[in-house]
Amino acid sequence: MDVIDTTLQARMPGSAQRHDALREQAQALEAFLFAEMLRASGTATPSPTGPSESQFDSFLRQAQSEAVAASGQTGLAEAIYRSMLGRAGLSGN
């Protein structure tokens, strides 16, 4: 029975790894939501090719939204992270 327990523990990510994974997912969700808000509102940096959307505008929106999410200034990723911690049954660190 001891062998099974150690094998299962080796497969399960550690608490720090789970916290890191949840934080990354929360930040990715914030970036996605912000990119969608930029797309829907049309307030992203205008394309140098003119008013019509170029094929690269989505890349620009994604880069802008990832920068905002990485800055942590909105606090949205942190709120999502704390909610995910509670649902996963983990405590904050």
The number of strands is: 0
Rounded to the nearest angstrom, the radius of gyration is 19 Å
Strand portion, in percent? under 5%
Number of domains: 1
Order of helices and strands: HHHH
Q: Give the overall shape.
A: elongated
The averaged pLDDT comes out at 79
Reported for the largest beta sheet, the result is:
none
Class derived from helix and strand content: mainly alpha
Q: What distance separates the N and C termini?
A: 32 Å
Low-confidence stretches: 1-11
Helix proportion: 55-70%
Q: How many individual helices?
A: 4
Question: How would you characterize this protein structure?
Answer:
With 93 residues, this protein is mostly helical. It has one domain. It is built from four helices and no strands. Helix 2 (15-41) crosses helix 3 and helix 2 crosses helix 4 (76-88). It starts with a helix and ends in a 5-residue tail after the last helix. Residues 1-11 have low confidence and may be disordered.
List its salient traits.
single chain; 93 residues; disordered N terminus; Flagellar_prot_FlgJ_N; mainly alpha; elongated; Rod binding protein; 0% strand
Task: Give a brief outline of the structure.
The protein is mainly alpha-helical and 93 residues long. The protein contains 4 helices and no strands. Helix content is 70%, strand content 0%.
Secondary-structure topology with pairs:
Elements: H1 2-11, H2 15-41, H3 57-71, H4 76-88
Helix pairs in contact: 2-3, 2-4
